[in-house]
Each structure stands twice: as structure tokens, then as C-alpha cells.
Amino acid sequence: MPYTPLGFGVIALPTGDPKVATVTLFAIDANGKANRSGFDTVFEGNTTYNIEGRLRTDFGGLTGHQLAGGVYSTKTFSSLDQNLRFIIENGAIERKDHSWAFYYNFDQYLYEPKKGSGQGVGIYGRFGASDGNPNPIHYFYSIGIGGKGILPDRPLDQFGMGYYYMDISNPKFTGPQGTRSFLRDEQGFEAYYNCAVTPWMKLTPDIQFVRPAQKQVIDSSGSVPIIVKDSISTATVLGLRLQLIF
User: Fold this and answer.
1) Do 69 and 3 have their domain in common?
2) For a Cys staple, 111 with which of 41, 57, 80, 121, CB 3.0–4.6 Å?
3) What is the pLDDT of residue 181?
4) What is the C-alpha to C-alpha distance for residues 134 and 79, in angstroms, rounded to an integer?
């Protein structure tokens, strides 16, 4: 059975309608031990708090949503940056107290022939920020566009395309031979078209371009790990999915 940490949550409905606005607040025990319930440690120094608000908007008479939230943890984490001298002198790795993150999402129709129908064309965007250490993702950005039923004779067809960029907090290790970093910023793009062959059969071609955060390939088969490639190129992924709906 998968382990779920102990948590407490409160959901508020400012308008009384969950489709219009919601505010949620959670407190989760962050000890993460599968053999403990968490009741004896919750709120005793290792707790993660999350607050989030979501609001439906009506800019220009078109449906949209705004969402913002934040996360704060009182737990102590391993630092992304390590120094061999510190490890030898202290007999332990460097640690970081507390962690935080903030995120914001939006979606907005630009064309909506009938309100609430789910058809039209819209854009979306996401942004996230964190302390950068111990969180490996310092900033995250994404933006895209999508639509459904924009062709008069193809009401069930959907399409979408999006781009993302991750500003990575590059982990570093300082040793006798200097400081070595292991990652780089990551970015990618995806586009798809969901073709409704019938109302119950959908065929979706998809293409993705991803430049991964990993920038080196390390061969660890020998007694001493060695870098065998110092630059991993952008990957192109083609996909085709057939979906049957019963």
C-alpha cells in the first residue's frame, strides 16, 4: 500500500460555488516514514504548509481561471551544493533549513462560441519560483495555446501546443580538482492534434522537442566513474496514440 503522509486540510468556498472560487489550506507531516502514522510528530518541526486560491474570471465575456499558491516547509533538507572539505571536517553533508515555493497558473479563452461548451481557442500559462536550494528547480515558465471544435465540420477535434523552460539550480560539488556542476537549464516544446475519427475513436499524432537538464553521461561501470560525453543534445520524440472510448 503506498504511504500517504498525515495531513490536515481546509477548503473554503468564498462564493459558495466551487466552480467560481475556492481557497484551500493544507498542513502535511513531512517526516515521510512509512512505519509511523505521523500523529506523534505533526507540527513538531517537520511540517509542510500549502495555501492555494482559484478564481473563475469573465474577462471580455470569455471564461478564464486564475490560480496562485505557495508552499513552505519547516523541514531540514540536504543542500544541493556540497564541499568535500566540509564533509571531511564535520563527518556530515551540508544541510539547508526550511524551503519555500510559489506558483501561478492561468487559462483564458480567446474565442468561445458558446459559454460553458468547452469549445473554442484559449491560452494558458504557468510560473513557479522557489528558493533554489534545496529545491533543484529555481524558476519554471510555460505558455501554450489549445482549442477544440474550431472547424465547423470537426466539433470533437482538439489541438494544442506549448513551450516550457526550467531554470535549474545546478548542484555543485567542490573537491580537490575544483568545483564541478552536473545540470543545466531545461526547455521543451510539444504539439499535438487529437483527431476524432468517430465519437468513440480518437487518433492523436504528437511531437516533442526536449533539451534535458542532464548535460553529461557518466560511465560508472569501472572502478572510477568517467564522463563519456559532455553535451547531451536535444531529443525529438514522435508519438501516435489511438484512444477508444466505451
Assistant:
1) no
2) 121
3) 73
4) 5
Domain count, the chain: 2
> Does 139 lie in the same domain as 18?
no
The pTM of the full predicted model, rounded to 2 decimals, is: 0.83
Which residues touch 96 (CB under 8 Å, ≥6 apart)? 76, 77, 78, 79, 133, 134
Q: How far is CA 57 from the centre of its chain?
A: 23
Buried b (16+ CB within 10 A) or exposed e, 141-161: ebebebbbbeeeeeeebbbbe
Cα gap 239→189, rounded to integer Å: 14
> Distance (Å, rounded) from C-alpha 96 to C-alpha 131?
11
Per-10-residue mean pLDDT, the chain, length 246: 60 88 90 65 76 95 96 89 82 88 97 91 98 93 96 92 94 75 90 96 97 76 57 90 93
pLDDT value of position 151? 87
Q: Hey, what's the cell of 66?
A: 486564475
190: buried, middle or exposed (CB in 10 Å: 19+, 13-18, 0-12)? middle
**φ, ψ for residue 197, nearest 5 deg:** -65, -45
- Give dist(CA 144, CA 162) in Å, integer: 4
Residue 129's domain spans which residues?
Answer: 58-244
